[in-house]
Specification:
Number of strands: 0
Strand content: under 5%
Distance between the termini: 42 Å
Helix content: 55-70%
Number of helices: 9
Length: 142
Amino acid sequence: MGKTTKELIESMQSSKDYHSYLLNNKDEINSSRMKIDRALNVILVERGLKKADVIRKSGLDRYYAYQIFNGTKHPTRDKVIMLCISADMTFDEIQNLLKITGYAILYAKDRRDNVIIYGIKNKKNVVDINTILYELGLTLLE
């Protein structure tokens, strides 16, 4: 079994420099994240969805969204969330996708994230979630 986070932090604190720490712990540190384009394309295949339908529902610019799917653009967290919502992913599925692709997960104690979570849990679309965000004076998903 690998080292715990606490053990990694202790090892970091006792190391002379980061390079020696990294050399001693390289197998413990996850540096491989799934690329977002691959993750999104896996979701489409698993669900039998068409890119065009998901993109249309997301409200993203079609050209830009296709670049996300082919890996030439690295999207913001918001754009990833918009695509996930449009692919009818559950809250847990979205959290997992955010985590494995290196994006920050949705945090219920953050007011804006809380609205987004509410929308996801209540099967709202991007427009409905943005309406709530707008009404509360919060930054829209874009």
